Amino acid sequence: MDHTKSELLYSQALEFMPGGVNSPVRACKAVGRKPVFIEKASGDRIFDADGNEYIDYVCSWGPNILGHCRPEVISAVIKACEKGLTFGACHEGEIRLAEMIKKAFPSMEMLRLVNSGTEAVMSAVRAARGFTGRDKIIKFEGCYHGHSDGLLVRAGSGLMTGSIPASSGVPAGYTESTLLAQYNDTGSVQRLFDENRNEIACVIVEPCAANMGVVPPEKGFLEFLRKITEDNKAVLIFDEVITGFRLSFGGAQELYGIKPDMTALGKIVGGGMPLAVYGGKKEIMECVAPLGSVYQAGTLSGNPAAVAAGTATLEILEKDKSIYKELEKKSAALEKAMVSAGLNVNRCGSLLTAFFTEERVKDYPSAKSADVTRYGEFYRFLLDRGIYTAPSQFEAMFVSCAHSDEDIERTCDIISEWAK
Ligand code: KE4
What we know:
This protein is of the alpha/beta class. It has a domain at about 70-320: Type I PLP-dependent aspartate aminotransferase-like (Major domain) (Aspartate Aminotransferase, domain 2, 3-Layer(aba) Sandwich), CATH 3.40.640.10. About 35% of the residues lie in helices and about 15% in strands. The chain has helices at about 5-15, 70-80, 90-105, 115-130, 170-175, 185-195, 220-230, 250-255, 280-285, 305-320, 320-340, 365-370, 370-385, 405-420; strands spanning about 40, 45-50, 55, 110-115, 135-140, 155, 165, 180, 200-205, 235-240, 260-265, 275-280, 345-350, 350-355, 385-390, 395-400. A hairpin with a 2-residue loop joins strand 1 (about 40) and strand 2. The longest helix is centred in the C-terminal third of the chain and has 19 residues, at about 320-340. Ligand KE4 binds next to helix 4. Ligand KE4 binds near residues 242 and 395.
């Protein structure tokens, strides 16, 4: 494939943006190549600046569950834009969208629209701290919740159950209240609650992890988190930025039948525009300004253009539940091809990761044992044959309802070719 134009654009981008990108993973450092610059997209296809065409399994990291340029979404956004991009004031559309979200996620008795998953999670954690009057929070190694300071942590050395900043520029003081547990390890959570009795404001978890690659919850794990948070009067926050409206119309909490106290949504809920949501129990959300003393605000929160994209997307998903059956069928076919190619696959609905590990990946340590060099070879093999997938072993592949059976079959054939 010729990537001349992309390489030229990348050299220009490097002059203006760190690493030439507006989000680190796009730099493709983890897979040993320069990024391709995308010019347009439609359905399950994306086209780069050199005119190369790919079947897209990144789907903008999740939002494009309907595929690119779904006509109903595009026309809804155009219609909204013609009436004004943003008012910085109340408008009916935000009520209608909130209504749809609450219907799909009954645990979100009250909610607020914001602009990114990071903002949604950061605000949910602040509300949980404000509601409980406690400072400490528990998160899981390998789970990513956006780049707010207190959540950019990694395990401290030795027996420290505290954490240390995972990014420079984050003062130690911002992360000392963030405790780290192990995903799918109930003992690590129990220990933290025993060592920090009555001090834990919340537990935040990806109900199906997708930022260490896809790692579904082991049986009983989410149930355990629900009980231990209830017993300790801590808030259980489901970060459903990826899983919301993807694993089912009601997200992971509908799929697994666990009702969290708060939920963060992003990606699909914005239909491809910058829109995310946090919400939960009324008594918690009533702590948020202007009702309560937990402050959170945003110039473009609930702007009509993004609300139009999210509403149009949810309307389609709500009306045609067969979409989820289709996604399951297509994703299972992909999984089968990868397994036959000898890959270790974790899948949850239309989220999947091919792991280059010897063993099944069920937690962060086993995910981190992956052979990332082999993953990079796999990535480049697929890209050169027109399959655009996650440029990191520790991300997910996303399937959309625009992925045709022919394209899924073509992808399976190329994966089988890889295995030869
Ligand atoms: P944003 O701030 O990027 O909208 O959302 C942050 C976030 C929160 N919670 C979960 C579970 C997430 O996966 C994310 C962001 N996801 C990454 C991909 N794994 C976004 C891609 C990127 O960082 O460029």
